[in-house]
Amino acid sequence: MKRLIVTCLAVSFSALVFAQETGTDKKANVGIAYQFGMNFNKPGTNVIERDGVGAQNMIGLNVNFNFNENIGLSTGVEFDFESFKYSFVDSKSTYYNYSDKKISKKNELQGGEDLFELTGRKYKNIYATIPLMLMFRTNAIGDFRYYGKFGARTSFLVKSAMNDVGNVFSTNDVALIEAPGSTFTAAPKENEGMKVPYGNDAFIIRSALGIAGGAQWNFTGNTLLFAEIGFYYGLTPMHVSKDKKEDNMTMFNRVDSNTTNDYFRIKANQTQLCLKIGILF
User: Fold this and answer.
1) C-beta separation of 150 from 211 below 8 A
2) Of 90, 123, 150, 227, which has the maximum CB count within 10 A?
């Protein structure tokens, strides 16, 4: 995180020097932005439910290319630090096998793993994002310009970790736990910083279409302050869901009188409501 901030500050300082050399009628503005967002995940399976509203904190480098007085292109490099939570429905007990902080896929099971009954999960993801949006600005009204933007944010997963809430048992045999009249008792437990094999759960690419509107304030010289509100609709799933191979899955449940493990994947899409502020040179 510190390295990202230092890098953005260094690039923005260079941009400030460049901007001072180009005069007031610039073809490009470069600067730093911060964004706070609310994540609204919509489950695509009846096994999970959204647990509250997730949060996004973003810091990044923004670049505006001005084609003329009123039309431009907004892009840059942004780093999104996000979290959101799911709860698992009570009617379908969900389990996974794990060793230490690694959740095991079906084809990795050795028989000595611990068994965890999952009741809730919090994701903590980091994305590198490239926004690409057309920007339409008004003519200057005093020191202010108002603008609207339309385009896409494309994100690439950098890191994903999970904090799980649930129960552990004195056996890892699900058949004994699910058997009628079972006397095995559950002990509440939190599994923090859990990891799955890369690409097994969180989708590596996220793309969203969005609109935004805001204002720029030319408060001194070549320096602009801006603030905007944006809404983004996710086009890609939040989790890997098209791989039908059970061997690559980690979570399973048993429904009714089934005597085998029914493996599944989490499915969800996301929309975001965001407030961005920043400074441009």
Assistant:
1) yes
2) 123
Per-residue pLDDT tens over the stretch 67-105 = 999 999 999 999 999 999 999 987 778 999 998 888 888
Q: What integer is the mean pLDDT of 3-17?
A: 47
Residue 24: DSSP 8-state: S
Q: Which residues pair with 98 in a beta bridge?
A: 103, 114
118 lies in which domain range? 2-280
Q: What is the residue type of 126?
A: I
Distance CA 126, CA 80 (A): 6
d(CA 267, CA 11): 38
Q: Measuring CA to CA, how many Å separate 275 from each of 58, 80, 174, 212?
A: 10, 13, 46, 9
Contacts of 208 (CB under 8 A, 6+ apart): 152, 153, 155, 232, 233, 234, 235, 236, 270, 271, 272
183-240 per-position pLDDT tens digit: 777 889 999 988 776 555 889 999 999 999 999 999 888 899 999 999 999 999 999 8
Structure tokens at 280: 């441009």
Separation CA 18–CA 3 (nearest Å): 23
Distance CA 207, CA 194 (A): 25
Domain count within the chain: 1
Backbone dihedral angles phi then psi of residue 246, each to the nearest 5 degrees: -65, -30
User: Tokens standing for 110?
Assistant: 């050795």
Question: Which 8-state DSSP code applies to residue 179?
Answer: S
Q: What does the radius of gyration of the chain's CA atoms come to, in whole angstroms?
A: 24
What separation in angstroms does the CA of 184 have from each of 112, 175, 178, 253? Answer: 18, 11, 9, 17
* Identity of the amino acid at 200: N
Whole-number Å distance between alpha carbons of 175 and 82: 37
Q: Which residues pair with 70 in a beta bridge?
A: none
